[in-house]
Amino acid sequence: MPHTMDPKKNHLLAALPEAEWLRCRGFLEPVDLPLGQVLYESGRPMSHVYFPCNAIVSLLFVMENGASAEIAVVGNEGIVGISLFMGGGSTPSRAVVQSAGLGYRMRAGALTEEFNRSGPLMHLLLRYTQALITQMAQTAACNRHHSLDQQLCRWLLLSLDRLQGDELVMTQELIANMLGVRREGVTEAALKLQKLGLIRYARGHISVLDRAGLEQRSCECYGVVKKEYDRLLPERRAT
Fold first, then answer.
1. At what angle do helices 148-161 and 172-179 cross, to 10 degrees?
2. Which of 35, 121, 134 is nearest to 84 (CA)?
3. 70, 180 in Cβ contact below 8 A?
4. Which of 10, 62, 68, 164 could hold 51 in an S-S bridge, CB 3.0 to 4.6 Å?
5. Mean pLDDT of successive 10-residue stretches along the chain, which has 239 residues
């Protein structure tokens, strides 16, 4: 299937001033992002950064015994591979596509060259990085202090913010791996939300029926993260 997605479906690319956009678009390569694809592994050099358009990528921290937990999600608001322009070149986390879709990638050298111009792209990427760090910190606090159904609400809302529409294709096993909990716990939390009329879950499809109710049941962590993204990246509200 030909890739026809507009690169400016990614909010960071859409926010670039015209001169930077014209320079960067020649470096962008369309890519399919199928479910489960690993974009980079822990400790390995990164060759590209990725700009999802209608896919969601999960950043996971993997323990020595193979257990993992999600530390952040990236979708059409952002970029996967911040270590490339932050100077690290690699990261202890793993990036895995959790919701299939399309996106664009840029070679590491091209991104670094553009970043080192110290222009609008650099400032935009640094503001995005600050927002991403907030999401990581709030996720750690949420996983420690809030109930599983509150965590699930936060996770659903963050994922929806990075997609178009009100439906996610996601198995309970995958959600459990993302949240670092047992599958049975996710099943119980999802059934509770379904009985409240907030979601409908069937065969790996989660439909949000009452977003306002989901936001009300979520802990304050979702609001903290969203407020910081909106403060640092106001162009998100206009797309």
1. 100
2. 121
3. yes
4. 10
5. 79 94 95 94 90 94 82 95 87 89 95 93 96 94 89 91 81 75 83 91 86 92 94 62
Which three-class secondary structure state does DSSP give residue 165? coil
Which residues are within 8 A (CB) of 210 and not within 5 positions of it... i.e. 6 or more apart?
A: 197, 198
SS3 83: helix
Residue 228: CB partners within 8 Å, gap ≥ 6? 130, 131, 134, 135
Residue ranges of domains in the chain, CATH in brackets: 7-120 (2.60.120.10), 142-228 (1.10.10.10)
Q: Which residues pair with 105 in a beta bridge?
A: 29, 50
DSSP 192-221: HHHHTTSEEEETTEEEES-HHHHHHHS-HH
Amino acid identity, position 85: F
The structure tokens listed for 208 are: 């949000």
Query: CB-side exposure of 192: number of CA atoms within 13 Å?
Result: 14
